[in-house]
From TrEMBL:
<feature type="active site">
    <location>
        <position position="171"/>
    </location>
</feature>
<dbReference type="InterPro" id="IPR029154">
    <property type="entry name" value="HIBADH-like_NADP-bd"/>
</dbReference>
<dbReference type="InterPro" id="IPR006115">
    <property type="entry name" value="6PGDH_NADP-bd"/>
</dbReference>
<feature type="domain" description="6-phosphogluconate dehydrogenase NADP-binding">
    <location>
        <begin position="3"/>
        <end position="159"/>
    </location>
</feature>
<dbReference type="InterPro" id="IPR015815">
    <property type="entry name" value="HIBADH-related"/>
</dbReference>
<dbReference type="GO" id="GO:0050661">
    <property type="term" value="F:NADP binding"/>
</dbReference>
<comment type="similarity">
    <text>Belongs to the HIBADH-related family.</text>
</comment>
<dbReference type="Pfam" id="PF03446">
    <property type="entry name" value="NAD_binding_2"/>
</dbReference>
<dbReference type="InterPro" id="IPR036291">
    <property type="entry name" value="NAD(P)-bd_dom_sf"/>
</dbReference>
<dbReference type="GO" id="GO:0008679">
    <property type="term" value="F:2-hydroxy-3-oxopropionate reductase activity"/>
</dbReference>
<keyword id="KW-0520">NAD</keyword>
<feature type="domain" description="3-hydroxyisobutyrate dehydrogenase-like NAD-binding">
    <location>
        <begin position="165"/>
        <end position="285"/>
    </location>
</feature>
<dbReference type="InterPro" id="IPR008927">
    <property type="entry name" value="6-PGluconate_DH-like_C_sf"/>
</dbReference>
<protein>
    <submittedName>
        <fullName>Phosphogluconate dehydrogenase (Decarboxylating), NAD binding domain protein</fullName>
        <ecNumber>1.1.1.60</ecNumber>
    </submittedName>
</protein>
<dbReference type="InterPro" id="IPR013328">
    <property type="entry name" value="6PGD_dom2"/>
</dbReference>
<dbReference type="Pfam" id="PF14833">
    <property type="entry name" value="NAD_binding_11"/>
</dbReference>
<dbReference type="GO" id="GO:0051287">
    <property type="term" value="F:NAD binding"/>
</dbReference>
Length: 286
């Protein structure tokens, strides 16, 4: 049993935390809205009133929060996690955040003797619930080995990608691939609908062929049922795409597919769909 602090219990974080609790670990939780942790508390998790209280009472802190600004605040500002974690403790940020910020956190953690990993994930709400996430890790081998048993509870594909920030860079690669894929998947469905085809039989024909993808198999059925509830919020996808665009600019790269996807999703957000799932891209066309 490990004493784990989990900060952030949203759509994915709550399922990830529940799996750690179910695996027999002592789980301490904090989230800005306590009601979002009610399910975990009902299963035996321990509530803490502040992130500082989490850090002072556990061996490992895992964060799964919203934006890079949140990550910077909770780790680096006065009274933050790094000030309250003792040497030898482990901090794992599983938020999709800035690679540059991840490297900064790891550097400051190292100065205090704290082990730090950036470990963003892919797999959405389904992967989180089933313990089937892909976990992309940046940091030292020592920190990775210490975290591996916890990662194995939450995910199936677990890979150390390199030093600090490498996990976040890998997640940017993932999001870039998804961005253009979502355009293709959505346009294909829109075409099928307008050609008078049955989307379900079309999906049965194409998902196991060359057009197959995770988004096609897992998100298109939701679109067909007009289920736009989030496995992953549009507002968070926009955040991820903008991180990738910022990093690409820093590397002097031009990514027109990603730029187009960001513009399309921003239009949806401007029309009140920011808290729907990424499959709501169908409404850009409809």
């Amino acid at each position: 049993m490990t004493k784990i602090g989990f900060i952030g219990t949203g759509v994915m974080g709550s399922s990830m935390a529940y799996r750690l609790l179910k695996a027999g670990h002592e789980l301490h939780v904090y989230t800005r809205t306590k009601a979002k942790a009610a399910g975990l508390l009902g299963h035996g998790a321990i509530w803490k009133e502040t992130p500082q209280a989490i850090a002072q009472n556990v061996d490992v802190v895992i964060t799964m929060i919203g934006y890079p600004s949140d990550v910077e605040t909770i780790y680096l500002e006065e009274g933050g996690l790094l000030e309250n974690l003792a040497a030898g403790k482990l901090a794992i940020d599983m938020t999709t955040s800035s690679p540059t910020l991840a490297a900064r956190i790891a550097e400051e953690a190292g100065e205090k003797g704290v082990l730090a990993l950036d470990a963003p994930v892919s797999g959405g709400d389904i992967g989180a619930a089933n313990g089937a996430l892909s976990i992309m890790v940046g940091g030292t081998q020592e920190a990775f080995e210490k975290a591996r048993p916890l990662f194995e509870v939450m995910g199936k594909t677990i890979q150390l990608q390199g030093g600090p920030g490498a996990g976040q860079h890998t997640k940017m690669v993932n999001q870039i691939a998804i961005a253009s894929n979502m355009i293709g998947v959505t346009e294909a469905l829109f075409y099928a609908e307008n050609a008078g085809l049955d989307p379900n039989t079309v999906l049965a024909s194409i998902q196991s062929g060359a057009a197959g993808s995770w988004s096609l198999s897992n998100l298109t059925p939701r679109v067909i049922k007009d289920d736009l509830e989030p496995g992953f919020f549009i507002k968070h996808f926009i955040k991820d795409m903008r991180i990738a665009l910022d990093e690409a600019k820093r590397m002097e790269l031009k990514l027109p597919g990603l730029e187009l996807a960001e513009q399309m999703y921003q239009k949806l957000a401007d029309n009140g769909l920011s808290e729907k799932g990424t499959q709501a891209l169908i409404h850009y066309y409809r």
